[in-house]
Sequence to fold (357 residues):
Amino acid sequence: MRFRSIATRRLFRWTPLLLVLLVLAVAGCAENYPQTSLAPKGDFAQMVDHVFRLTVRWAALVFLLVEGALIVAIIRFRGKPDDPEPKQIHGSTVLEVIWTIIPAIILVLVAIPTIKTVFATAKDPGNEALVVEVVGHQWWWEFRYPDLGLTTANELHVPLGRTIDLRLESADVVHSFWIPQFAGKRDVFPKRETRIWFKTEDAGSYPGQCAEFCGIQHGRMGFRVIADEVADFDAWVAGMRATTATVPVEDSLALVGQQLFATKACVGCHSLNAVNPPPGQIGPNLANIGARTMIAAGMLKNTDANLARWIQDPQGYKKGSLMKIPGRITDDEARALVAYLRTQRITSPAVVAADTP
Ligand code: CUA
Fold:
């Protein structure tokens, strides 16, 4: 230790910081960053992004000019040991007026588009929009389409080219609804409706997330927005409309699962029917669960293994969730339940294709 030079010791002291910077730099190179608000895919998000970029450009220009002038002054006018004392001055009215007026002009140039955007994004989306009622629950999202008579959960299907008028409310505590690529955050309150809207022209599957701390599983309160071509959306609607509480099942394993679903308390909280599900359902609606991309509120890929794991031990993955299994579900029972849930899928090939990640 004693032989280490001062330079080596300094280097060691800065190593943790250098490592953190290196990790951040490498992370910045990641190609896949779906939960970003910097790649807007909806009209609402694009308007906000426009103001953001404009403000960043002005800020960058100011930074470069001010820091540039500072560096030039430091180098060009630096003192030398035998310099005489410089001329003493006090204030400059001309300079002070200039450096008050220039920032004021820049602020006005930023304020005009900002205020325009505030009003544009607060306007009523109009009667042509597709209304979706969003209900935040600890810890999942319910989506109701009152005009289509459909209810679903955690995967919000929307058609391209039509404004989606979201009306948000909470069933319990305060949540915040956020689809980074489509719109800003909107707080979700019990007994008070808030609204937000967006329209997209880009088909795809987009992640969303609760953005307000709402309890122990706040971080696992995700969802997905699946933006469908109009024909695919219509097929999804038709498929969901055809779902019923009791689907005939031929497979013998699925038949066992169907009986378990009715006797193991699943049916008390979940409906498999997207059309007018019975009131008072406390768990997510499961119509089309067999073909959804994710389970557990947008958190786990909808594979047989994950579904079985979730059914057998929901508290192991999402402690505090209302899903509590009375007694125990054996591996065989879980396999049968998974086989049954896989049969709960709407049949339109277009929708199945769009649902595949
Ligand atoms: Cu809901 Cu955080």
Observations:
- Confidence is low (pLDDT under 50) at residues 349-357.
